[in-house]
Structure formats: C-alpha cells, structure tokens
Amino acid sequence: MDKFRMLFQHFQSSSESVMNGICLLLAAVTIKLYSSFDFNCPCLARYNALYGLGLLLAPPLALFLCGLLANRQSVVMVEEWRRPSGHRRKDPGIIRYMCLSVLQRALAAPLVWILLALLDGKCFVCAFSSSVDPEKFLDFANMTPSQVQLFLAKVPCKEDELVRDSSARKAVSRYLRCLSQAIGWSIALLLIVGAFLARCLRPCFDQTVFLQRRYWSNYVDLEQKLFDETCCEHARDFAHRCVLHFFASMRSELRARGLRRDAAGGDPVPPEPPEDPDSGSGKAHLRAISSREQVDRLLSTWYSSKPPLDLAASPGLWVGGLSHRAPTMAPGTRLSQHTDV
C-alpha cells in the first residue's frame, strides 16, 4: 500500500507524469479497440476506398481529439495564447513549447492505431484493391477490363464465390498486405530514429532556452492550479462567514422583538465564541476580499491583467485597483450587514 500511495502522490504532484499516464492509457485502449473491431469490407468498387481509408484515418482523428481533451495543458496553452498582456508579457516560445508537448502526447494513440492498421493490412487491402495494376499479374490476361475491376473489388472478401480459392486473389492480397506492412514498418522506423536522434543530440546543444521554456510552461500550469484551489478555499470561507453572519443577524432580530427566552426571564444567553482571527495564518488575504464586487473585480483583474513575475514589484501592480471598490476588512472583523452573494 505504501508503494501505491507513493506512486499516486508522484502522479498527483507531477503534471507531466499524469499526462504521460493518460497517453499510455489511450494507447492501450487503442490496441484493445482495434483487436476487438470486426472489419467488414463492402467489396464494392465505389465504396472500398472510402471504407478502408475512413477506417484508417477517422479513428485516429477521434483519438487525437480525445488526447487534446484529456490533456489539461491544451486548455492552459490556449488561455495563455489568448489572454491580454496586462502587466506580464507573453512569450511565444513558451506557447510553442506547450503546443509541441500537447501535440506529442495527443499523437501517440492515433499513431498506434495507424501502425496497427498498416501492419495488419486489412484496411490497406480494402482501400487499394481496386487500384492495383492488373498488368503485374498474369492471371488477368484472359479477363476483360470490367471483369478485372469486379474481381479486384472482391479481393478483400475471400469467401465470395467469384474469388474463392483463386490464386489471383491471393497474389493481389499478398502484394497489398506486403506493401502495407512495408509502409507501417517504415513509419515506425522513422519515428524511432527521430526520437533517438532528438534524445541523443539534444544534450549537444545549449540547454538554456529549453530549460527556461520548460520551467515557465510548468509555472503557468501550476499557477492556474493554485489560483483555482485558492478560489475554492476563499469561496468556502466566504460562504461560511455569510452563513454565520446570517445566524448572528437573525439572533439580533429575535432579541429585538423579545422572542428570546432571556427577555422573558429565562436562561441567560451564552456568550458568543470569539471569531478566530486566523492571525499569522494564510487566510488573512482571503478574508480581506469580503464582498461580491471585490470578488468579481479580483477575477476580472486576474484574467485581464496577470500580475508581473516579480515579487519585488509594487503591490499596486498586483492588485490592479481592487481596493477602490469596497473597503477591506481586518481579520476577525464581523460584517455589519448582510453580505451580497
């Protein structure tokens, strides 16, 4: 259990590890889908190419879109590309790095499908059986052109009466299957050689730009995650304070109307527990945002004017004019009226 817990914490803390895990999962799902798919070529001259090429290219397109949807960095990349500059300039190099990273992971599952389809050869045979040059095979010498086209269209259907136990059908099918496997192995070899060269040659060049872009792409992702988590924390604290304020105001109203037992000589009212000021904790900056206008202004400022990446900068550049909307409150100060939510 400890090993699984450590592995889960590693994946949870590393965005790249999560994306790599999703990439491997999509590749495994792709293999399972292809192995369980029932391939049935229509064996019609008009529709063979459409069916074969559609089955070769349409599922990879769907898997590519699924890879983009599953990768959180694709959304972060678009947001970084489209956001207003504000106090932070946009670096096109970071956006290109994030784009390449997203595309590399999203293309893994589609490439697996294409390679499986090419190495299997059924899609290729179905798509290009009608395009084979009959002069390469001696068995078509005694057939008319129309008979040749009909025969070639029936090549993927080995159980059809026209081509059953035909040596010409086996020759054409074997030829197309060999061609399909040659293309598949060539693509696989190119991908492996390209990955090998990229991994081996990268240390030979200056790594400064690469490290900078990798660092800031990770920063953009983590910054958005922390902002979302902080917003959730503030929303919970804000709702808690609004509910407490509502109950406190209702008690004051009941006391004013004489509906409390202490007004009729009943039990004394227990003293209110003091509100925890959270002095010295990280919640002071959350409690300072204490109205709906301030929250809306904060969210608008975060989108339209990201703070500069300089902790020594003037605080006015960070808040972007939040304080002119509503006065901030010291930690532990009780609201004097209903908070607008």
Overview of the structural elements:
The protein is mostly helical and 341 residues long. It is built from 13 helices and no strands. The chain has helices at residues 2-13, 15-36, 48-70, 72-82, 92-106, 108-120, 122-128, 145-153, 167-201, 208-256, 284-287, 292-304, 315-319. α3 packs across α7 and α7 packs across α9.
Chain-averaged pLDDT: 80
User: Approximately how much beta-strand content do the residues carry?
Assistant: under 5%
Shape: elongated
Classify the helix fraction into a percent range: 55-70%
Gyration radius over CA: 33 Å
**Distance separating the two termini:** 44 Å
Name the helix and strand elements from N-terminus to C-terminus, one letter apiece.
Answer: HHHHHHHHHHHHH
Instruction: Count the E strands.
Output: 0
- What is the number of helical segments per DSSP (H or I, 4+ residues)? 13
Structure summarized in a few sentences:
The protein has 341 residues and is mainly alpha-helical. The chain has helices at 2-13, 15-36, 48-70, 72-82, 92-106, 108-120, 122-128, 145-153, 167-201, 208-256, 284-287, 292-304, 315-319. The protein is elongated and about 110 Å long.
